[in-house]
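Section 5.1 Outputs to date
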Amino acid sequence: MSAFDDYDSITSADDVYYVSQSDYTYRVPTPPRVNVAPPGIDSDLNLSLRPANGDPSMEALTFLKEYGYQYTIKKDASYSWSYDKRYQAQEILPFLYLGPMMAVARRDFLQQEGITMLLAVRPVIEKQSTVFNRVLNVADELGLQKAAIDVGSTQELISFLPKAINMINEHIYLAHRQLSQQHSLNGYSKPSMGKVLVFCESGNEKSVAIILAYLMQMFADMDLTRAMQYVHTRRFCVNVDDNMRFLLTGYWDYLQAKWMVDASHTHQVANPESRTIPAPQASSGSGNRDFSRKRGFDVSMDEHDEDMDGQESETVPRGNAPFRDL
């Protein structure tokens, strides 16, 4: 008799003193799905850089506000999408492109769009791949900057997101400074910028994660849902599975926590008086305590014992029990 037969015999017995609170399932537990609705025709999406809040990297990239993001938003490619476009690279932002490895081989496209950097996202096992290395050699032929993110799994990719975003921002900043100096010498007045093409083998999976993380980190009011909706209007064939969505949701939570800490630090620097913490005073029933000594385990336990004096212990239920007594 198997274990499942034992379970059936126990649950079908007449002398059962408990019943299950929910239906039994043999499915492996999975995290909740992150559902993303398709963007509407009258989308209220607005691309604007988030406040710096003392972040030196964001303060150095204030020149990005000069570019017309509303023009980029209106270029909705989802209504005119065709299958062959999945083999091409699409403009996500005026300085950021997304596409497959095949698009990098199109030297005429790279020169026409003014791409200045190639950022590859490849598996670790493909690090010595002849195909990937041959594609990256296109950067040497055209005098472009190149970089690669080597990851072993989707979970590992999440840890590389800050590094990839810093690569993009550093190149954009240095290219802007260099091109601005050249344009000033030649008398050009229009804004100049570098352009980064982020790609993986298909252009629909791992490279998309970097683009989504970049949008969430750099632009205000751009959570995962809005970022995915926006990228779909640029490159309709992207595929973000449930595992990637769940991990990117965690990255969004990390960003929010980081911004909260940065905003609190900026407020404390601007208002030094808010950092003054009043000295604690002993309550009437706790006696005289020495708050100058370090609060160790013994001190915490002594205070806990004092708080529990004269109180009856009670059991507080936590959540729902799997079974209920009859």
